[in-house]
UniProtKB/TrEMBL annotation:
InterPro entries: Crypto/Photolyase_N_sf, Cryptochrome/DNA_photolyase_1, DNA_photolyase_N, Rossmann-like_a/b/a_fold. One of its GO terms (molecular function) is deoxyribodipyrimidine photo-lyase activity. Signal peptide: none annotated. Pfam families: DNA_photolyase. Residues 15-150 form the Photolyase/cryptochrome alpha/beta domain. It comes from the Bacteria. PANTHER family: CRYPTOCHROME. This is Photolyase/cryptochrome alpha/beta domain-containing protein.
Amino acid sequence: MINQQIEDAGSSDVQRGVFWFRHDLRLHDQPAIAELCTAVSQVTFTYILDDKCFDDAAFGFSPMGKHRHTFLLQTLSDLKQQLNQRGHELLILKGNTAECIVQLLNAGGYTHLGVSQHCGFDETAQLNTVKRFFNTLRVIETPTFGLFDAEVLPFDMKTCLMFSVRSVEK
């Protein structure tokens, strides 16, 4: 990851990006960070502590228990330290995730949003909400939820899956 600086802060064509950490709180193995850093002149890294994680769910259990919260804070502290070593900061916000991202993007005049792809319902809904607020925002979304990149495997995953389905159907 390259620490890029804005050369002319007064220029209106400066490309600024936000990388939104969600579940993958690491710097390595994040293709969206690399792609974002090549597309913009300045990157802001952020994580949102969503209020919803601390509210009781349907059966009276909070999605964020004491031990998970402690682990999350330790992981964020480590991530913040790694970013500081590379000349960056980690902006940690608390509130409704989509609202926080929209406010951040509006306030900073950002042109790009980098994020790791997640298939979860909440993650998809949050990103779709953010996208609805910005017509010109370039969203860089890359998958990081698998052990392997499907494009570098020596076979076609779709063909293998179809073969498996056909074998089961027999």
